[in-house]
Structures are given as structure tokens and as C-alpha cells.
Amino acid sequence: MDQPTYRPYGNQVLSDDYYPSVIFSISLLPGAGDGNHLYKMWHQAPNEIAGPTLAVSDSDGGTLWTLVGKLQFTDSSYVIGSHPAVVYNVKGFSQGSGVGPYLYKMWYWTGTATPDVSSLKAAGSNDGLNWTSLGAITQDVSQPLVDGTLGSFFYNFEGPGCVIYNPTPINIPGRPFTYAYVMYYDLTSGTTVNNGSSLRTIGLAYSIDGLKWYRYGSAPVLIPKGSGSLPPSTSSTYGWDDTFVSRASVVNDGTIYHAFYTGSNQNFAGNPPELHGIGHAISRDGATWSEDWSNPLFYYNNGISWRSGRTHAPSVFYHVEASAFQMWFNGGTGALGTNQGIGYASS
Questions:
Q1: 228, 239 in Cβ contact below 8 A?
Q2: How many domains does the chain have?
């Protein structure tokens, strides 16, 4: 496709139509503005003076979208955010203590990398447009998502990739998918590699309530192939994702887990250098991954003009009945804040 599928703010100078988070429900997703639809997408809107904002759009087929508007928050706790990860429960999420229930939950990033979880926020909504804060995010001190140790895999938190909801949790310690919430999240080491960027990896965490999180394992679950130890490999031969992996979208097809993720290499030029392609990996348990031999699935140098500067940030849904995947992803030609669009693919 020579043009992005969706670019609602493309005519604005500070357009930033990217980082989609898409959900689907055959029973129709309730919403504000133009009513109920099969699909909803939360994505970044034009950058404001204080930073990025979020918006929501609706669709009935997943390719033609209608912009509902920028997200509205009903309290003063909202911090301008980016990188949304949204889940939906037709029965509603109960937060306890009289809060909620809400039909939608969202986790998002403030846009500033932090050596703790202070930049991760959570909110609830019943229409996808109007949101209320769910309270402070915390991490278990014995299993922290980030540790603030400069140069370690777990130095900085840099946003959620996706959150998976389990409606029947049994909470077995050390087994993430027995909990109500599982999050794949982005990490940076704080130490720079070529092009001035920090090594990026993907961690796995789980939670009972979506507010207090526990890290799984002693290492990230997706680590660049050239970076099994720090600092990254100095080999003159690099794979496409040898230095940077981020923004995982994980789905289960009923048998195995599939991860679709952003990857890049410290040797490749570009702005930024860490958002150049989308790869695929499979796993039996959601923690130990095997990369697809045909990676990358999409790359910035595929000859598609609208994503010739970057191709990244997949959001994937798996249709069990049709045995088919749908992917929405980001592309662009220039620096962050310009010429960003959202594309679509199916398999």
C-alpha cells in the first residue's frame, strides 16, 4: 500500500498519528460520538505544547475509520500521554473500593523515560472517549519492573507495549498468564549505542488489579539478538533487530502465542534509528520466544514511500473464527511529529 490507511490529523503541522491500540468485539463496542462499532482504535493525536495527546477512532471493518476526538479526562490527575494499551470487558472491570466498574481500561506512558513506574498511568472509561484515573501505579519491590540501575536491562521504563486481560485469574506466583493482567513493556538501558540511542528490550509483568505490577524473570523476555550481554555486540555484521526491540503486540491463536514487535539496528541511519521494522516471534508460554526465520515482516526499505523513514508499533488482533490476523501499524517519512500515518495488513 503506497499510502497509510489512516491519518486523521495529517493536515496539521504537528501531526502525530501513530502508536495505535486496536480492539474488536463482535457484540459491538460502546462508544461516544458516532455510537457503537466493531472496532475501536486509540492512537496519538497532534502534539500539544505540553506534549503528546491521545485520541480515539471507530470502524466497522478495520480499514475505514472515523475520528471521534481527543480523549477527555474527568479529573485533574490526567498527565498528557502516549503509547496507549487498551483492554475491553463487556461485563465491566471492577476496581474495588467503589471505583468503576469500567468497560475499558487503558495504560499509557507520559512520554518521559523514568527509572521507576511513575511514567506509567492507568485510566478507566465506559465510552472510550471520557476517562477517569484508576490511581497510582506501583511495582513490587522484590520484582520491580525497572530498577534504576544505569546500564542494566531494567534501567528505564519507556511505555507499555500491550496489556492482555484474563477474566478468570487464579494468581499462581511466577506464572504470569494465571493473573488478571499481563503487560509487555518497553525498557531502555540508559547507556547509548550508535546514533545516540539507548539499548531497548521488552519486559513481561503481571498484576492482580492492573495497578500493582510484578516483573516476570530476571531478564527481559525479548532481547536484541546482538545484545545478549551489555554492552551490545560490536560485530561488523548486524541483523535487522540486533540493538532495539520494543512495542510488542502479543496474541494467542488458541495454541501458541504470537508476538509482533518493533526492531532495528544500531548501525542503521534514520530518525529515530530504533523504529525501522516489524518482526514476528512465537512462544508456547508467552515468555520464551523463537523469532520467525522470515523476519522482518515489514521494513522501512521495502520501497513503500509513506513508511520509508520508519515502520513500527504494531497492534494485532486474531480472529479465532476466521483463523486470521489483522495488524495496524505505524509508518512515517521524517522526524517524530511529522508525516506519521497508520497502516493496515492482514494474514
A1: no
A2: 1
Show Cβ contacts of residue 241 under 8 Å, excluding neighbours closer than 6 positions: 224, 225, 263, 264, 265, 277, 279, 295, 296
The DSSP element (H or E) to which 72 belongs, if any, is strand 72-73
- Domain membership of residue 108 (yes or no) is yes
Domain CATH for 97: 2.115.10.20
| Domain extent at residue 144 | 21-346
pTM listed for this prediction: 0.92
Q: Where are the alpha helices (DSSP H) in 52-115?
A: none
Query: DSSP string spanning 7-48?
Result: -TTTTSTT------EEEEEEEEE--SSS--EEEEEEEEEEEE
Question: How many Å is the maximal CA-CA distance in the chain?
Answer: 58
Q: In a 3-state reduction of DSSP, which class is residue 262?
A: strand
Task: Please write the tens of the pLDDT for every residue from 5-57.
Answer: 888 776 665 556 789 999 999 989 999 877 899 999 999 887 665 566 899 99
What is the tens place of the pLDDT at every residue in 206-252? 999 999 999 999 999 998 875 443 333 444 455 788 888 999 999 99
